[in-house]
Amino acid sequence: MSNAKQLEMMFRKIGRTTLLASALLLLSACGITQEPKEGMTAEPSPVQAEPDADAIRVEVLIESDSDSAVNLEVDIDARKHPESVYLDTIEVPYREEFTVPKDTFIPLTSTKVQADKDEAASWISCTILYDGEVVATHKSRGDKAKAVCEKNFRLGPG
What we know:
The protein is built from 1 helix and 8 strands; from the N terminus they run H-E-E-E-E-E-E-E-E. The protein has about 160 residues and is an alpha+beta fold. It starts with a helix and ends in a 6-residue tail after the last strand. A hairpin with a 2-residue loop joins strand 6 and strand 7. The longest helix has 27 residues, at about 5-30. It is elongated and about 90 Å long. The protein has one helix at about 5-30; strands at about 55-65, 70-80, 85-90, 95-100, 110-115, 125-130, 135-140, 145-150. It has a 4-stranded antiparallel sheet with strand order 4-1-6-7, with no helix packed on it.
């Protein structure tokens, strides 16, 4: 057999071996569960709810070092299903969930949340979550502290 034929066969074997090794590495990266070792107990992990494929779950959260906040404004700018909440006083922590159906192209264009601290507080914060993921947060301190969170939809990078 010629040297060229031997080299060609060797490269084919190396190629197959590399492909097999890559596939095994990829599969092992997917994770393998193991039974707990004898004497060890495993804590059950909390199961996170599967996000609804037909809707966006929007959550707003207001927190403070006081028991209340004032002048809450929540605006969910959804193309077909907009929602707003305006309250003079709220108890904190305040959490509210909204569901925006995915029944149109770009169903949710923006979310804005703002609230003022009450007289007893030194700080106030707001958080916006989409399907459990934080997309905006803000904390404000001082005499006239106001937390303002806003998330706008943008096409393209950014």
